[in-house]
Design a protein that fits this description.
The structure holds three protein chains of three kinds. Chain A is an all-alpha fold. Helices cover about 70% and strands about 0% of the residues of chain A. The longest helix of chain A has about 35 residues, at about 65-100. Chain B is an alpha/beta fold. The chains are: A mainly alpha, B alpha/beta, C mainly alpha. Strand 1 (about 280-285) of chain A pairs antiparallel with strand 1 of chain B. Chain C: Keywords: Membrane, Transmembrane, Transmembrane helix, Transport.
């Protein structure tokens, strides 16, 4: 709780936190939605925003607001799945490479750096074009997690490398602690904060990737996500037809979502970085 | 004749940690005057504020460091000027009038340009260097004078050894013949041979240029071999000041006695006693005389009142109730 | 001297290509879909007449191409052999033009867009970020940083879309898409070059704004550490002019890690270029990829993925090879 209060003193964190809370409330509202998101023609078509349909309706006869609540929920779910599993890969790679060192480390980091620099989009497109349509959003989350771990693995590895040189490692080894015990009991507490600070960035990346793949028509368009909602609006030429509320809703929501996630991640990583921690000590000028 | 004077100088680090105001009193009410053509040494253990003192004397005061009170005067053209009311013109007298030699361990030269480029940057900011070939010759002569090979001018900093880099830095700081040179631990973090070379170099420069060097180091051995006068600092205050021979032969303050007593002497096999305890915090310094918790001769008075720095003879000043009852207000 | 710098980089270069190509090789085998059957279906669905013999022959070549013939190791070697010859088979949506030819035609557009936007935004972003970082206590510096902070996290697609809506649909200042006016013959006339520029302007700007925002932010972070370095403190103690300190001491040094960062983010920038091209229907590899997806042209998708892997890793190698020019510490060890 103390950490949270410290974070709230940062303006960036406050703004990000407020926006993300509003977005989460929207996502939760989907559970009380009067509509089934997969059904069409449940409302009159192409209505501009009004009291009855606060964000209007689209050309498929769906209420844009309630559609949005489902979209946010599904996009966030994909992001959480992708972030969770990629973190597991990153932790394993980082711990093993950092702790074992030597040739194994060089090999794993070579692989790691390859994943880091490879142009992921064409590869992801290759994969999803093969399993097009059959891709559930859990599956999409899993695929994204396979490609989103390399940066974090690198960060975790360098943290482990520095821990390995510390005295307590030698003390523990000399007193007969097993490697596994050492890694999980002694090193984990240091790795967890890094995992959290990169988690948000990774979620943001996954949401962005989902939107991109959806726009290209490579995800299951039946499931409302921020990407598919946008894709429908574009394929129905919403802009040309003047249905601005349909197009703008996912665009504005995703911009808000990305900006708030970014603000949170910047604020948290500044908080965790001992070098910038000193800057939080306010310097008094005369 | 005094060239630099500090009056009632107080420089604190002001910090706000978690909503609470902290002031680190690194320089607390210091009065000194330093003469022309002398090497003035400042000694004390790490964390006693000696680096902060010379930073303040040099006018390098940036938040969180603040000059809370007091003045520092330079004598420029026979007139004493308070440097804290000089504002912008302080920058312009740097290197011409006063220059700075940093700690030996620091990587103080721009790593991506050749040494000569650093010279152009420093010189060119203060004098006109449009006639580069003449200046290049001047720099080379200066190097020759200091016994440095001129080919290092075309090297990059990382290609030089630590000792050579520090000597180049000294050459850089003295190229414009400044009246005052401020040196902050110039020989620390170098190996013994390089240390000796650096100290010799400083001594020779002073001899030939007849300028003033303010030398800060914790190393009493260095002070013994080079300083003309020494000030001993403890917890942000000067506790004793005297000519070098006087300090070593007749130390008065108990803290100075510990410092001198800790020095090894040839043939002396006695057990060395250092001051017990650790240096005090500068956020919450002890009441009264700041040395009293570690002093074997502490009296009741020492816990309550702050002793004033007074003259025991014309050249020797000490702040201790063993020698005077004067209190600081 | 440089051997210790170069050899690990060459090894990494080969490793990236190896990992990338291996992924491309295994993807069709790990998915539950038979790409060969899918492809044949696509062709027949498009109404192209194929006699059974041709189908059989095509199945054979496709099997070979995707590594579905012989044992795994043989397949893998054969796969490499074809790749190194640049043989990705025929395109399906522009049958029978070879994939490599289609890629070759669209490559210059992407290359132009990518190099101009990458280098300009890297340069501008670093200078701006350096200045913002150096004068961090000034008001305008904080305003600029906040702007970058809001723009940076927006994905390429959304940002390009917003640019397109505002400047093409609403303000009508720029064409809605394409690479040059329809029916115009390429020439070296001023008018044609102007038209090229007019069509490239929005894609360029939308990539550059994002690129600048990212570079600015990382640069500001690096600078905030560099200004605490001893050589900067000392230059200030020496009264060196502020402009010299800002550019020659701070920005010059902070740019070095940014060279490496550019290399590391090249893959992302490239993906961003593909997406931006799609939004503006700019006739480069992105749009080609879009058409390939829309028509299920698996050969073309695979060709683009492979060429991208080769291209990006070569580009990164080039940056790595140029790095010693900027850093004397690597040059003279």
């Amino acid at each position: 709780m103390g950490i949270f209060r410290d974070l709230l003193r940062d303006g960036k964190f406050r703004v990000g936190f407020i926006i993300i809370c509003l977005i989460l409330i929207l996502a939760l509202l989907s559970f009380v939605s009067p509509y089934d998101p997969t059904r069409w023609n449940v409302a009159p078509r192409d209505l501009p925003p009004s009291l009855q349909h606060i964000l209007g309706t689209n050309s498929q006869g769906q209420d844009v607001f309630w559609q949005l609540t489902f979209a946010i929920r599904n996009s966030l779910t994909i992001a959480i799945i992708a972030a969770f599993f990629s973190r597991i890969i990153a932790i394993i790679m980082g711990l093993v490479a950092g702790y074992r060192g030597g040739r194994l480390d060089r090999f794993l980091m070579g692989i790691n750096d390859s994943f880091l620099v490879l142009p992921l989009l064409p590869i992801l497109i290759l994969i999803s074009s093969l399993i097009k349509g059959r891709l559930s959003f859990v599956g999409l989350g899993l695929i994204l997690s396979v490609f989103g771990w390399s940066w974090d693995a690198r960060v975790i590895r360098s943290q482990i490398l520095s821990l390995r040189e510390r005295d307590f490692t030698y003390t523990a080894l000399l007193s007969g602690t097993s490697t596994i015990q050492l890694v999980f009991k002694e090193y984990f507490p240091f790795v967890i904060p890094i995992v959290f600070s990169t988690l948000i960035n990774n979620m943001s990346w996954a949401i962005g990737m989902e939107i991109t793949l959806a726009i290209l028509g490579l995800t299951n368009l039946e499931i409302p996500t921020l990407g598919t909602v946008l894709q429908w609006a574009i394929s129905y030429q919403a802009m040309l037809l003047g249905l601005w509320w349909w197009l703008l809703t996912p665009v504005v929501t995703s911009v808000l979502l990305f900006v708030s996630l970014y603000l949170l991640s910047v604020s948290i990583s500044e908080y965790l970085d001992p070098r910038t921690r000193i800057q939080r000590i306010r310097v008094i000028k005369e | 004749m005094e060239i630099i004077k500090a009056e009632n100088l107080k420089a604190y680090y002001l910090l706000d940690i978690g909503g609470k105001l902290h002031s680190v009193r690194a320089v607390d009410n210091i009065n000194i005057s330093i003469k022309e053509d002398e090497i003035y040494g400042i000694a004390g253990e790490s964390g006693c504020g000696k680096s902060t003192l010379i930073k303040t004397l040099y006018g390098m005061v940036e938040p969180p460091l603040n000059v809370v009170d007091g003045k520092v005067y330079y004598r420029i053209d026979n007139e004493y000027k308070n440097i804290f009311s000089m504002n912008g013109s302080l920058e312009s007298i740097r290197w011409n009038y006063i220059s700075y030699i940093p700690q030996g361990s620091m990587s103080v030269l721009n790593p991506v340009v050749k040494i000569i480029e650093s010279f152009w940057d420093f010189i060119g900011s203060h004098v006109d260097i449009s006639d580069k070939s003449t200046w290049r010759k001047n720099i080379e002569e200066h190097f020759a004078l200091l016994g440095l090979p001129t080919k290092v001018l075309d090297a990059y900093p990382h290609q030089l050894s630590g000792g050579m880099r520090q000597r180049v830095t000294i050459a850089l700081a003295t190229i414009l013949n400044p009246k005052i040179i401020v040196a902050d631990e110039p020989s620390t973090a170098l190996d013994v041979v390089a240390q000796r070379a650096v100290i010799q170099l400083l001594k020779e420069i002073q001899k030939s240029l007849k300028n003033t060097i303010i030398l800060v180091t914790h190393d009493m051995g260095v002070h013994a071999s080079i300083s003309d006068r020494i000030a001993i600092m403890y917890a942000g205050k000067i506790v004793e000041e005297a000519p070098t021979s006087e300090i070593f032969e007749n130390p008065l303050h108990p803290y100075t006695k510990y410092l001198i007593g800790a020095l090894p002497k040839i043939g002396d096999k006695s057990y060395k006693v250092s001051a017990p305890g650790a240096p005090p915090s500068l956020i919450n310094p002890p009441s009264g005389c700041r040395f009293h918790p570690r002093c074997s001769q502490a009296m009741e008075e020492c816990k309550v009142n702050v002793p004033e720095l007074i003259n025991v003879n014309s050249e020797h000043r000490v702040a201790c109730f063993l020698y005077s009852k004067e209190r600081e207000l | 001297m440089l051997k210790r710098y170069l050899i690990p980089r060459l090894i990494q270069y080969l490793l990236v290509i190896f990992v990338g190509v291996t992924i491309v090789f295994f993807v069709p085998r790990l998915t539950p879909v038979d790409p060969v059957q899918q492809m044949i279906n696509t062709i027949t669905r498009m109404g192209t007449y194929l006699d059974p013999k041709a189908v059989e022959k095509m199945t054979e070549t496709l099997k070979e191409l995707y590594g579905l013939k012989g044992n795994l190791f043989e397949q893998y070697l054969a796969f490499w052999g074809r790749l190194l010859k640049g043989d990705f088979g025929p395109s399906l949506f522009r049958f029978p033009i070879p994939v490599i030819k289609l890629i070759g035609d669209s490559l210059p557009w992407t290359l132009g867009l990518l190099t101009i936007s990458t280098f300009l935004s890297w340069f501008i972003g670093n200078i701006l970020g350096g200045i913002v970082g150096f004068y961090y206590d000034k008001r305008w510096a904080r305003v600029m940083e906040s702007i970058a902070m809001v723009i940076r996290p927006i994905p390429y697609y959304i940002f390009a879309l917003i640019t397109l809506i505002v400047f093409s649909y609403l303000l009508k200042w720029f064409p809605l898409g394409g690479g040059m006016p329809v029916g115009v013959v390429p020439s070296f006339s001023i008018k044609f070059i102007f038209e090229l520029f007019r069509y490239a302007f929005l894609p360029l700007i939308s990539m550059m704004v994002l690129g600048i925002a990212v570079t600015l932010q990382t640069m500001r972070l690096i600078v905030s550490n560099i200004v605490k370095e001893d050589f900067v403190t000392y230059a200030r103690a020496g009264g060196v002019k502020k402009k010299i300190i800002a550019f020659k001491y701070v920005i010059r040094n902070a740019m070095l890690p940014q060279v490496t960062n550019l290399a590391l983010s090249m893959g992302q920038i490239f993906s961003g270029a593909l997406i931006t091209e799609i939004v503006f229907s700019y006739p480069g590899m992105g749009t080609l990829l879009y058409n390939a997806i829309a028509t299920g042209d698996f050969n073309l998708i695979m060709g683009i993925a492979t060429i991208s892997i080769f291209g990006i890793s070569t580009f990164i190698l080039l940056i790595d090879l140029l790095y010693p020019l900027f850093d004397p510490r690597v040059r003279y060890r």
